[in-house]
Amino acid sequence: MEEKVVNRRMNREDVESLRSLLPGTMVDLQITTPTAPRRVKTGYVGMELGNCLLFQAPTSAKWMSTRDLLTIGNDLVVRYVLEGDAGQVIAFRVKVLKLLSKPTGLLITSFPSHIESIGLRANKRSQPGISVTVTSETFPEADKVTGIIVDISQHGCKIALPLNPEWPVLLDNANLTLTYSTDGVESKIQASVRNHKLESDFVYYGVKFNSDSETVNALLSRHTLIS
């Protein structure tokens, strides 16, 4: 079977997810650094199946500090949203193989050994991600506003909430409470909105945690998307 030739840890769905990543798609690169990871967005160029992946690496002055971090062997985490009926955030880890500046800026990485994904649609139950209930003064008290955490760090997270005419869009600096369940026990995290973006059928919120590190670490331990 082809996927076993590509990588024994990859199943057919993983391979199809990679093939669905079209050239020109914007992806999020998380670059390992001695201090905190650096996050940048760039364009996907293509792949040689089972061998390597290629991404844009601009030679502009704005990108120079980022290029300095793309040393051979350094770890990267690549994330992107796979649209469609299932709606998924895909993530995988690779290593830098080579960085080219001519004839164009190009980053060549290793091929991923496995892929992780979080479903954004309610009917994607096999990989539900981290389901949270969001409460805010802006939302109607009678409504149970639920969403999915699609990305997370020690200091904050990204939440996807379905577009709902009854749920006003939260403005920056709005306070909210995230409630999630662990083995039937509810935990709450206080947070505030830092940014928001409307895409397709979802509103994506970048939020900053205001709760203690112990509560945040408990949530981090349940996050299945590569961190």
Explain what you see.
By secondary structure, the protein is mainly beta. 11% of the residues lie in helices and 45% in strands. It contains four helices and 13 strands. It has helices spanning 2-6, 12-19, 64-67, 213-220; strands spanning 26-31, 38-48, 52-56, 75-82, 88-100, 106-110, 116-119, 130-135, 146-152, 156-162, 175-182, 185-199, 202-209. A hairpin with a 6-residue loop joins strand 1 (26-31) and strand 2.
List its salient traits.
six-stranded antiparallel beta barrel, 227 residues, 11% helix, 13 strands, mainly beta
Main sheet strand line-up = 1-2-3-6-5-4
Number of strands: 13
Radius of gyration: 19 Å
Overall pLDDT level: 81
Helix content: 10-25%
Distance between the termini: 30 Å
What overall geometry do the principal axes of the alpha carbons give?
elongated
Separate helix tally: 4
- Decide which structural class fits the backbone: mainly beta
Q: Report low-confidence residues grouped into runs of 5 or more.
A: 1-8, 121-128
Task: Describe the sheet with the most strands.
Answer: 6 strands, antiparallel, barrel
Beta-strand content bin: over 45%
List the secondary-structure elements in sequence, H or E.
HHEEEHEEEEEEEEEEH
Question: Could you provide a short overview of the structure?
Answer:
With 227 residues, the chain is mainly β. The chain has helices at residues 2-6, 12-19, 64-67, 213-220; strands at residues 26-31, 38-48, 52-56, 75-82, 88-100, 106-110, 116-119, 130-135, 146-152, 156-162, 175-182, 185-199, 202-209. It has a six-stranded antiparallel barrel with strand order 1-2-3-6-5-4.
